[in-house]
Design goal:
With 473 residues, the chain is of the alpha/beta class. It is built from 15 helices and 12 strands. The two termini are 13 Å apart. Bound molecules: adenosine-5'-triphosphate. The site of adenosine-5'-triphosphate has 13 residues, from strand 2 and helix 1. GO terms for molecular function: ATP binding.
Amino acid sequence: MTIPAQSDGSAGTATLTEGAARGETLLKVTGLQKHFPIKKGLLQRQVGAVRAVDGIDFEVRSGETLGVVGESGCGKSTMGRLITRLLEPTAGKVEFEGKDITHLGVGGMRPLRRDVQMIFQDPYSSLNPRHTIGTIVSAPFKLQGVEPEGGIKKEVQRLLSVVGLNPEHYNRYPHEFSGGQRQRIGIARALALNPKLVVADEPVSALDVSIQAQVVNLLDDLQQELGLTYVIIAHDLSVVRHVSDRIAVMYLGKIMELADRDLLYKSPMHPYTKALMSAVPIPDPARKAAKSERILLKGDVPSPISPPSGCRFHTRCWKATQICATTEPPLKELRPGQQVACHHPENFEDQAPQDVVLLSDAKEAAELVAEDALAESARTSAAVAAEVEAVEAEAAQAEAPEAEGETEAAGKAAESGKKSTESAKPTPESVKTAPEDGEKSTGSRKKSTGDAESAESTESAESADEEPPAKEK
Ligand SMILES: Nc1ncnc2c1ncn2[C@@H]1O[C@H](COP(=O)(O)OP(=O)(O)OP(=O)(O)O)[C@@H](O)[C@H]1O
C-alpha cells in the first residue's frame, strides 16, 4: 500500500523527528502500580483493592514497537491507560521524554495529549455514531486549538487517505463502514496530531482474521512512514509476533518476561511465556507433530485482589518449588536483551538450583504439560548450565597461570572462583539426586530430567516450533 507522505508544514503540529532520537528512551515506567479500591457498606469503606498493575518497570525506545501480551485480566489495558495518563497511578513513576508526567493535571497534560495517543479495541463503541467521520477525525485539532495549513478539512481528508479510506467519505457516519474501516478511522484520529507514541489496546481483536492482517500491516506501514513508536497490547502472541521489536509478557499485574522478539520466540525463558507460545496455533501441517508439546495451563488466572505469594505464576507452574511460593523473583536480565522474573527459567541455568522439591501444585500442573515439553525443558536447561560451567571453568583456567607464583590472595581468589563454579552445578544433576525421601520428591521435574540424560543435545532449544519468523518490516 502506498501511503502519501506526511505534510511537513502542518501548523501547530510537532514533527515526528523532534524529541527523542530513534533508539533513545521515549517512555520510562518505574514501579508503576494501579490498585482499584473495593468499597463496601454505607460509609463506602475500602475493604480491599484490585491490584490491576502491581509494580512494573520498562522503557519504550523511540521508533520501536513494544508488544504487551498476557491473558485476560492481567492488567494490560490498565497499563495502557496509565502510560497515556487516562488513569491516575496509585504509585510509581511515568516519564515521557525525560519529563515526569505521573501526576500532571488536565492542564499539564494538554500539550502531551498531542504526543501520546491511544487506539482502542472496539471500533464499534469508540466512535460516536452521531458524528460524521469528518467531525470525529477533526476533533483533536479542535480540542487542541490547532489549525493545520490548508484547513482542517483538507488535513482530515489527507489523514483518511493515509489510512486507506476514501477522502470523499468525509461526511459519512460510522455505521456506514465495516469493522476494519472503522478501526482505520480510529487510527486516523489517533494520528491527527502527529503523535510520538501510540498505544494500541487490542487494535485488531474485534475484527475478522482477514481484516486483522490488513490493520496490523497498516500500523506497520505507518510506523515506517511516520517514525511512530508503538505500544501494542494483545492477549496472544500471534498478533504482536510480526510487528514487535520487543515483547513484554504480563501476568497478574507484573511483567514476567521482557525480551527482544527473536530471543523470546527462539528460547522463551519464563514458563508462562512458553505456555502462551505453545497456545499459538501452528498453521503448517508439516509441523503438526509439535501439537503433542502443547502446554495446557491449569485453571484460571487467580484473583488480582489477593494474588499468590512469591511468584504469582507459581500456582499454575509445573516447575514451582518452595522458593517460588515464598520469594518473588526479580525481573533480571539473564541474557542481553532478555529480562526474566523466574527462579527456574527455561532454556537457561537454574537460578535456585538448591531448591528442587516441587510443590504439589506444580505436580498437578506438570500433568497438563506434555512429556515432550518437560523433557525438552530439562534438556535445554541442562545444556545451558553445562555451557555456563564450561565458560566459567575456562575463565578460571585462564586466570590460574597468572595467579601462579603471585600473591597468596590471588591464588585464593582463583580457588574460590572454582568453588563457585561447583556450587552453580547444573540443576539437572542436583535434581536427579534430589531428596528421594518421601512423597515430596521431585516428581515430574525428576521425571523430566530423567528423560534428559543426553544433556548435550542443545538443538532442542531451537525446535522448529520456536523458529523466529522473519520480521516483516
Ligand atoms: N475501573 C476498574 N475498577 C475496578 N477494577 C478494574 C477496573 N478496571 C480494571 N479492573 C480490574 O483490573 C484487572 C485488570 O484489568 P485489565 O482490563 O487491565 O486487564 P487486561 O489484561 O487488559 O484484560 P482484557 O484483555 O480482558 O482487557 C481486572 O481484574 C479488572 O477486573
